[in-house]
Write a structure and sequence with these properties.
By secondary structure, this protein is of the alpha/beta class. The chain is built from nine helices and eight strands.
């Protein structure tokens, strides 16, 4: 990793587990710079009118539309991708899991995920959070298999304990890369917000923060001078977009 602090983009989707967002941000901020990106459904579980979470900038779908006038203007989901070293989607709802597995990109967060730099070795972690029946539903298992299959289409995961050895990408002309690490799994058994007891609760904050830190250490992504310059440019673009706010343009 470069000598600067790691950069984590925290994605929030429509699960009641979003009530832990600020706690998770603070845990990540103990070792990384953090920005947040929330889906419209996630906003129902965040403080009304929030523009930041524990001091971390919060980006919404409306920021993307407000920041772009025409050709040559920054594209927000690309700027977020260029800035971040790791994408952590926590919580990942059943709906967003299905969309992610299907390759949909109908909002800012899913556009970031779809445009993610898989070949560059930047890790992605997801922390599912949903009711037990939703987690154990056959369609959820299908979505999880599809998500893993899509990851394997880009790279092969080195076996656990195999160190940092990389495997050659099978597609002709592609660089050897490392696939995103496995998802942060739900707790084995927990009392859910709805009162049910069972699988489906989001992983503990400390678990997610540690997993993100370990994933970055394993990826050992050393940014080139060009990549760092690009990330610095993205930082400027993101600060400008966030300062402008998410209100639609009227001009």
């Amino acid at each position: 990793m470069p000598s600067r602090r790691p950069r984590v983009l925290l994605g929030l989707t429509g699960s009641v587990a979003c009530v832990k967002a600020e706690e998770l941000v603070r845990a990540l901020q103990s070792w990384a710079d953090v920005r947040c990106c929330a889906t419209p459904a996630a906003l129902h579980f965040l403080p009304p009118g929030a523009t930041a979470l524990a001091g971390a900038q919060l980006f919404l779908d409306a920021h993307e539309w407000a920041a772009w006038r025409g050709r040559g203007d920054p594209v927000l989901h690309i700027s977020l991708r260029r800035w971040a070293d790791l994408l952590l989607i926590a919580p990942l709802s059943a709906n967003s899991l299905a969309k992610l597995a299907g390759g949909q990109a109908d909002g800012l967060l899913l556009c970031v995920a779809r445009a993610w730099d898989w070949r560059g070795g930047r890790p992605v972690l997801v922390a599912p959070a949903m009711n037990t029946e939703m987690w154990e539903h056959p369609l959820t298992a299908q979505a999880r298999r599809r998500r893993r299959a899509r990851a394997r289409a880009h790279a092969h995961i080195a076996p656990r304990g195999a160190g940092l050895a990389r495997r050659r990408h099978r597609a002709a002309g592609q660089q050897a890369v490392r696939a995103p690490p496995p998802a942060v799994q739900p707790l084995t058994r927990h009392s859910l917000m709805c009162g049910d007891v069972g699988l489906g609760a989001m992983a503990e904050v400390a678990t997610m923060s540690s997993a993100a830190r370990e994933a970055l250490a394993a990826s050992a992504r050393a940014g080139s001078a060009a990549a760092e310059e690009e990330a610095a440019g993205a930082d400027v673009e993101l600060n400008a977009a966030w300062a402008q706010g998410a209100a639609p343009r009227t001009d």
